[in-house]
Amino acid sequence: LLGREPWSVRRLDYSPSCYLLLAGSSAEYSKIAHHNIHFGKSWKGVFEDLIDRKQLMSDPSLLVTNPSHSDPDLAPDGKHIYYVLFPTPNLDSPIDWSLTKDRYRDEVIRTLEERGYVGFGDAIEVEDITTPQDWADRGMERGAPFASAHSFLQTGPFRPGNMWGENVVFTGSGTQPGVGVPMVLVSGRLAAERITGPDPTYRSRARSGEVRLARHLGRRIPGRPRTWAFGRSGVPGGRGHGAALGNPPRTLRSFLAFHAHGSHRDRVPHVRAPV
To answer: How do beta strands 163-164 and 80-88 pair?
Structure first.
């Protein structure tokens, strides 16, 4: 669109992609929650497969979301919706998704049923699959719906800026401040302010929450010398008031590390949600 690729974009490394199965199903799993993360036994192996070897996971870790668990009106009476996400390499991998799509569907179903989703495949009544190639066909670089990796030098102020020249403004997870619904909403506000100017009446509810949490916890947590201080900038160590949080739980560290392109590859226990 611009006729050339700026260095700030050309330098980027991209996050892994994903294989997404959306299923309308007659099956109900009464003990699952709205969001369910199922870890394989080899957490470090997931990073090695996806990032180093650029191959499909040999021992998958995956996400199953069940929206109709929280809102039954989203599906017909007696039916349920399942959103099944398997991380995959992005299109830097040589995988040919035109050949792999259907075969990997069988692997996804087999894994779900092994993890306790009994009869999942037979209960599917309608489905839609999105592969890394489909993400790329929708305009996502390297087929990566999570955009460029959330490594330190690609996060917050180090992510590509949202202005080009005087009148082109970008928004979304590929620009500042980063990936995730809260960050994308911040990106939208920043883009609007580039056009209309700052809104002097706006006060972030998230910011108010940070201040309240900081007052509750204090700036330090006894016995936990390492902290994350989220301040005005929205990144660790930001200026202004912020919530001082001790080392996050190990599972959270590991999940964040995945979105950071495997910067830290902690092991986590094998966790399965009851089905």
So the answer is: unpaired
Look-up: residue for tokens 């009851």? 274
pLDDT for residue 209: 56
Distance CA 127, CA 240 (A): 47
Q: What is the pTM of this model?
A: 0.70
Report the SS3 class of residue 141: helix
Query: Quick one: tokens of 90?
Result: 């992005």
Q: Which residues pair with 129 in a beta bridge?
A: 21
CA 243 to chain centre: 23
Distance (Å, whole) CA 113 – CA 119: 7
Give the containing element (helix H, strand E) for 163.
Answer: strand 163-164
Residue type, 111: T
How many contiguous H segments (helices) and E segments (strands) does the chain have?
9, 9
Q: List beta partners, residue 85.
A: 20, 63
Q: What is the 3-state secondary structure (H, E, C) of 12-60?
A: CCECCEEEEEEEEECCCCCCCCCEEEECCCCHHHHHHHHHHCCCCCCCC
Q: Hey, is 147 helix, strand or coil?
A: coil
Q: With contact defined as beta carbons under 8 Å apart, do 131 and 96 qualify?
A: no
User: pLDDT tens-digit profile of 167-221?
Assistant: 888 888 888 888 888 888 888 988 888 888 888 887 776 665 555 555 555 544 4
Residue 134, SS3?
helix
48-52, 89-93, 249-253: segment of lowest average pLDDT: 249-253
The structure tokens 């699959």 sit at 129
Has residue 46 got a pLDDT over 50?
yes
Structure token digits, residue 120: 């999942």
Terminal Cα distance for the chain, rounded = 48
> Is the sign of the CA dihedral 179, 180, 181, 182 positive or negative?
negative
